[in-house]
Amino acid sequence: MVERVAQYFGKKVASKIDAGTFHSVSYRWLKKRDGKVVLKQQRELKTLFRSVHDKRVFSHLDADATAYGATYLYDIYSLYQNVEMSKDFGSWVAEKYPEHDVFSLIYADIIEEFERLKKEYGFLNFNDLLLHMRAYARENELGYKEILVDEYQDTNALQGTLIDAMKPPSLFCVGDYDQSIYAFNGADITIIGSYKDKYPQATIHTLNKNYRSTVPILSLANKVISFNERIYPKQLVVTRQEEALPPKLVVYDELFDQYHAIADMISRSSTDHEDIAVIFRNNSTADGIEVTLRERDIPCRRKGGVSFFDAREIKAILDAYTLIVNESDMMAFIHLFEYAKGVGSAIAKEIYIALQTLGHGSMFNGLYDPDKSINNPFEVRQKNHQLGLFDDFFELSKAVRFVNMGFEAKFVKNVVLKHPKLTRDGAQFLYYFFQLFKGLRKAKSPIGVVKAISSSKLFTTIKESLATKRAQLQDGSVDEKIKTDSIQKIVRKANLLQELSKPYSEHERFLNAMILGASDLTQGEGVNLLSIHASKGLEYKEVYVIDLMDGRFPNRKLMSKGGSLDEERRLFYVAITRAKDILYLSYARYDKIKKMNFVPSQFLYEAGLIKEDEEYAKMIKKDEEDE
Question: What whole-number distance in Å separates Cα of residue 273 and Cα of residue 135?
């Protein structure tokens, strides 16, 4: 968008535009204000959250429900931050999940401790960027004369209040009501739906020309989406007037018959594989189609798969690297020690805090030059039955149990080794950590640091742990060939990270680039396998929308958990409008593995591809009852 502005008005004008996602714009403002922002990814903060959550006991409460685990509670809290602007977390949980009211005090206290730790260590996650930016904007004039918000239909309550806080003299929003498909992630369709009420003086422009799809494809899309309530009148005008193929419905007796047949159709297609997409509602569907494509040696790639930067081995290297730049980053320490046998996140946090205590605020001083006058550096836990805190801290053990492990004498004398739950494997891992950072602290270049970490005994342990886990079979045994292959893949990724580090001379710039600027480096070319959410904004010459069985699409299970038929219909609309020229819709009547019969999707009836019958009447009646 900035490049297009530059074409019309020149680069000098375009360079004055502050463009980016809500998060990246907020990050730049906060960095300019504070000088440094310690941005942590969700995975890292979930580990910190787990270390707080796992200290709690819920079993003493008489409840019908089972308390949420750490990961799920973290996700609920994240959703709360995005959608709730007035209630405190405990009240919101009690109202939204009444069966968990009995746990709400403990949940709220976990959140309070988690936020205190984040503040203490200066950590921010992506939600915090928006929350801090909103607070800053409410108190300061940002100076924007014009704000343009794209994909306005996907904004959530937090983003909406951030826009309000920016107080723009002119606000220009672009969105498509029919493509609002992120309700599960907090997106609030009423924000775009109420735009003309909130801004009665605003001018509404309708963009109704479609340059992508053919007349038959767009006609089908319009026909189905018309079943949704229309907030903004819209009738798409097709600009492509050439003769075109109509969308085709293909039906199969059995689920895997469908996958095999589609693989055959793709193998015979004259369309380049890169311009073919298979789109599905549920991620589990991707496994079946991927297997059948690979059986025929048809290359394919799954959008939204594990990216290079999400690979655990890369995250481990970057966690170790982070501690060079910021030794106060407790999360990086905890995350590394998840690979130490017998050391969970709670114990790792206790060890880290103990090292800080021994080093009077410096973890590395506590590791290499601890204060010998401190006999017990471990924090004492306070009992509070109401908040699920029961256990006082334990008595120290003797570090002599590690004396014959070949450690340096200076290391063995560190009182942190007296933690009674520290295993021999855990102590060995801590020693490898001790050895690595003794040399790393003086490292100058990013490539030198990455090389040192990836060739260390610490990373060898991590590499062994990951490869073993990836090679483990269902009976618990380890396939040595798979393990060897896994180790080779880990080494290749470490080497690629070295290549990525070459252009950088500063540690902090390199790390920020890896966290904020990392693009998906998933390798490979071929047929695109996409969930509908991953397909949004993309287009392909030939598209297959598969598994169009009622229950799967629309997904009745998700509808019962707060979704809606309207949102499922918008998902269908997005899926079919990815197609430029050729569109196939398919479903199967039976799943022989689950021994389950299927009926066609409601949307196939609405599209006029299947005549209304008894099954359709049942669906309509059920929808009316649910409403």
Answer: 48
